[in-house]
């Protein structure tokens, strides 16, 4: 399973990133149900099986950074690292965890910060337009300040920090925003789970991380 994921993704990502000027190459990846749902409002929804999780973790190793919105941090408390691999990856070689958090709502005891404090994870970057950053910085986060809350400006800011390949994993409003601004997306990977969810959020719905962050 691990070897299959590695071999498949290496064929896609073996070429150097295209020259995209001042923005990173973006891979947008998410899972959805047969009826097109990617989440329930405010609830964790598991749609990925072990095979797709193996692919996701291998995919993470091929990118400089992994980005999610603050809603995903609040709901899932993710680690944003590569763990499900046939060989372990050192902290130094892990992708950079990145959180979009306009109003700095990131919990100071979330796994991203505690992993960094304990030496088991990279220092998380928090992209924000807020100036009230002292507590979050003291907890260990690095603040990436953006004046204008738009994906264009965020991509330019991350490129300036050395991010050349970026993996975007969610949540729903971040996914929706990238699908609307699809000129920023170079690869789209969608896992379709053989299940029906019913009421929920669709990837093609309305969402903008500047005021609906997840």
From TrEMBL:
Pathway annotation from the record: Cofactor biosynthesis; riboflavin biosynthesis
Cross-referenced SUPFAM superfamilies: Dihydrofolate reductase-like
Residue runs in coiled coils: none
GO biological process terms held by the UniProt record: riboflavin biosynthetic process
One Pfam short name: RibD_C
InterPro entries: DHFR-like_dom_sf, RibD_C, RibDG_C, Riboflavin_Biosynth_HTPR
Entry superkingdom: Eukaryota
EC nos: 1.1.1.302
Enzymatic reactions: 2,5-diamino-6-(1-D-ribitylamino)pyrimidin-4(3H)-one 5'-phosphate + NADP(+) = 2,5-diamino-6-(1-D-ribosylamino)pyrimidin-4(3H)-one 5'-phosphate + NADPH + H(+); 2,5-diamino-6-(1-D-ribitylamino)pyrimidin-4(3H)-one 5'-phosphate + NAD(+) = 2,5-diamino-6-(1-D-ribosylamino)pyrimidin-4(3H)-one 5'-phosphate + NADH + H(+)
Broadest EC class assigned to this enzyme: oxidoreductase
Keywords, alphabetical: NADP, Oxidoreductase, Riboflavin biosynthesis
Positions of the Bacterial bifunctional deaminase-reductase C-terminal domain: 24-206
Family affiliation: Belongs to the HTP reductase family.
Role noted for this protein: Catalyzes an early step in riboflavin biosynthesis, the NADPH-dependent reduction of the ribose side chain of 2,5-diamino-6-ribosylamino-4(3H)-pyrimidinone 5'-phosphate, yielding 2,5-diamino-6-ribitylamino-4(3H)-pyrimidinone 5'-phosphate.
Name the record gives this protein: 2,5-diamino-6-ribosylamino-4(3H)-pyrimidinone 5'-phosphate reductase
């Amino acid at each position: 399973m691990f070897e299959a994921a590695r071999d498949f993704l290496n064929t896609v990502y073996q070429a150097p990133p295209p020259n995209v000027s001042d923005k990173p190459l973006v891979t947008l990846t998410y899972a959805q149900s047969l009826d097109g749902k990617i989440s329930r409002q405010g609830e964790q929804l598991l749609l990925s099986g072990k095979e797709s999780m193996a692919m996701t973790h291998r995919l993470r190793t091929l990118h400089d950074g992994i980005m999610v919105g603050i809603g995903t941090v609040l709901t899932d408390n993710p680690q944003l690292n590569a763990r499900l691999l046939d060989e372990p990856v050192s902290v130094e070689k892990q992708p950079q965890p990145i959180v979009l958090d306009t109003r700095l709502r990131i919990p100071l005891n979330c796994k991203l910060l505690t992993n960094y404090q304990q030496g088991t994870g990279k220092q998380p970057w928090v992209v924000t337009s807020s100036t009230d950053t002292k507590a979050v910085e003291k907890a260990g986060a690095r603040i990436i300040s953006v004046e204008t809350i738009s994906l264009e400006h965020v991509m330019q800011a991350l490129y300036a920090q050395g991010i050349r390949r970026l993996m975007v994993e969610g949540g729903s409003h971040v996914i929706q925003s990238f699908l609307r601004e699809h000129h920023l997306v170079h690869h789209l990977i969608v896992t379709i789970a053989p299940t029906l969810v019913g009421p929920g959020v669709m990837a093609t719905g309305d969402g903008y991380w500047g005021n609906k962050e997840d």
